[in-house]
């Protein structure tokens, strides 16, 4: 009798143990990732002296090792000028680390040449975009709090830096300011095969806080410090734009419009000179289109569009 009770107990322990192991393995991938805002070290830093020469606007462009052509096109077009409408402007690229030593060497070389790369030693993959964005926030906080505004954007974007500068000067709001393509009523996507799938484990709530499309958003530089400061105390999310939205909600900073007309186009926009003179950002622009658009804009005159 005692013997079979013992066996029952062993069996019970075994089953419970197996169940725990199964749950652990099943959930391991989804265990909440604790974000350490200052984790990792900087591998590359740009040559920008913000104390000597405070920029009006710093453009931080998320990029990957393979997007060399996009960086080259940006350096020749909207990322080129250091002075725009009389204001200091700098365009910098955000990169992580690659497993390929060749890619790492090429990036180090590119950084030496252009001095416009911010790189840390996290793995450069799409689902680490939040780390990449937070690296940008950290960089502004540590190395460039003197900047007035910061834009975070992507490598496949057209940015009208001149018009953005003009609108920021006109808006004249230099603290607790956050703008872009507003997403005020977005929901988590629960279908597994979607690129933006978020499980209930990662984000249990049914609605996202207000945020701006990650394709391009602009903020006063104090926001970088504040977002950086609260980033460890909000739930980590791989969707960087929503994650920044969670930080803003905690800070009670509400994203707002930059202009009465739409100026951010996360879904893309057909090119015309007159149209692109009066937008801030447009998504889905290939390097070769960017060069073509830029040439057309450079050789146009604003007056020609006055009637449009
Ligand atoms: C993001 O980077 C970290 C640090 O390098 C790495 O441990 C992690 O696996 C990366 N995330 C993904 C989804 O690959
Ligand atoms: C910008 O706002 C400040 C107050 O916040 C004001 O003193 C200044 O005159 C404004 N500048 C312009 C150009 O409107
Ligand atoms: C960071 O947040 C803490 C509270 O979590 C606050 O006391 C502190 O003033 C903040 N620092 C900055 C620089 O905003």
What can you tell me about this protein's structure?
- This protein is of the alpha/beta class and 308 residues long.
- Helix content is 37%, strand content 19%.
- It is built from nine helices and eleven strands.
- Helix 2 (68-76) runs parallel beside helix 9 (287-298).
- The N and C termini lie far apart (94 Å).
- One 2-acetamido-2-deoxy-beta-D-glucopyranose binds next to strand 5.
- Its main location: Golgi.
- Its EC number is 2.4.1.-.
- One of its GO terms (molecular function) is N-acetyl-beta-D-glucosaminide beta-(1,3)-galactosyltransferase activity.
Q: In total, how many beta strands?
A: 11
Distance N terminus to C terminus?
Answer: 94 Å
Radius of gyration: 23 Å
* Unreliable runs: none
Main pleated-sheet profile: 8 strands, mixed
In terms of structural class, how would the helical and strand content be classed?
A: alpha/beta
In percent terms, what proportion of residues is strand?
15-25%
- The total of helices stands at 9
Order of helices and strands: HEEHEEHEHEEHEEHHEHEH
The dominant shape is elongated
What is the helix content?
25-40%
> Overall mean pLDDT score?
92
The small molecules bound here are: 2-acetamido-2-deoxy-beta-D-glucopyranose
Write the layout of secondary structure elements.
Elements: H1 2-28, E1 42-44, E2 57-62, H2 68-76, E3 83-84, E4 87-97, H3 101-114, E5 117-123, H4 129-143, E6 149-154, E7 157-159, H5 161-171, E8 178-183, E9 211-220, H6 221-230, H7 240-251, E10 264-265, H8 273-277, E11 281-283, H9 287-298
The protein binds 2-acetamido-2-deoxy-beta-D-glucopyranose (3 copies).
């Amino acid at each position: 009798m005692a013997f079979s009770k013992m066996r029952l107990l062993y069996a019970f322990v075994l089953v419970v143990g197996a169940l725990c192991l199964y749950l652990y393995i099943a959930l391991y991938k989804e265990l909440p990732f604790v974000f350490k805002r200052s984790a990792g070290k900087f591998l590359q830093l740009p040559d920008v002296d913000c104390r000597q020469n405070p920029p009006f606007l710093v453009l931080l462009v998320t990029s990957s090792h393979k997007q060399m052509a996009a960086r080259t096109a940006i350096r020749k077009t909207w990322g080129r000028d250091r002075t725009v409408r009389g204001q200091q402007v700098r365009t910098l690229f955000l990169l992580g680390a690659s497993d390929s030593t060749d890619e790492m060497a090429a990036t180090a070389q590119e950084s030496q040449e252009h001095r416009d790369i911010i790189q840390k030693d996290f793995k450069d993959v799409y689902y680490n975009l939040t780390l990449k964005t937070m690296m940008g926030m950290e960089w502004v906080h540590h190395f460039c709090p003197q900047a007035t505004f910061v834009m975070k954007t992507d490598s496949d974007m057209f940015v009208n830096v001149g018009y953005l500068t003009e609108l920021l000067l006109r808006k004249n709001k230099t603290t607790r300011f956050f703008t872009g393509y507003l997403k005020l009523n977005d929901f988590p996507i629960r279908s597994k095969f979607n690129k933006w799938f978020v499980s209930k484990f990662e984000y249990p709530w049914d609605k996202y806080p207000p945020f701006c499309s990650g394709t391009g958003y602009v903020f006063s530089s104090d926001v970088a410090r504040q977002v950086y400061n609260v980033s460890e105390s909000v739930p980590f999310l791989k969707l960087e734009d929503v994650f920044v939205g969670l930080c803003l909600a905690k800070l009670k900073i509400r994203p707002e419009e930059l202009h009465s007309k739409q100026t951010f186009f996360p879904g893309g926009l057909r090119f015309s000179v007159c149209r692109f003179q009066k937008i801030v950002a447009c998504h889905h622009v290939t390097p070769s289109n960017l060069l073509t658009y830029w040439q057309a804009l450079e050789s146009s005159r604003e007056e020609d569009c006055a009637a449009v």
